[in-house]
Amino acid sequence: MPNISSDFSGQTVITTFEMTPGTAQDLMDALKDAYEKFIRHQPGFIGAGLHMNDAQTRIANYSQWRDREDFKAMLRTEEMRERNRQMAALCSRFEPVMYEVSAAF
Questions:
Q1: What's the pLDDT at 3?
Q2: CA distance to 30, 56, 100, per residue, from 83 (Å)
């Protein structure tokens, strides 16, 4: 489970997905499946959360990793590359961005 703290020294990744309400649940199901069966078992994975807006046009994914290289290694696996291709077909765009925690309240 993610723990947002200003003394967190790992890598935080926030990914946003944009889609139509017609594909929102399919994309959420694909993301849940990816975390349950693959991502959470990868070296360096700490935790993640998935959030969907009320209009079902955006999903936000917050994940924490031991370090940047662990996250990048997961993305380079053949399984994740194939999953990302499938998820890309369900949304108009998605963008993972790496962040560092500046403050937590």
A1: 83
A2: 8, 21, 26
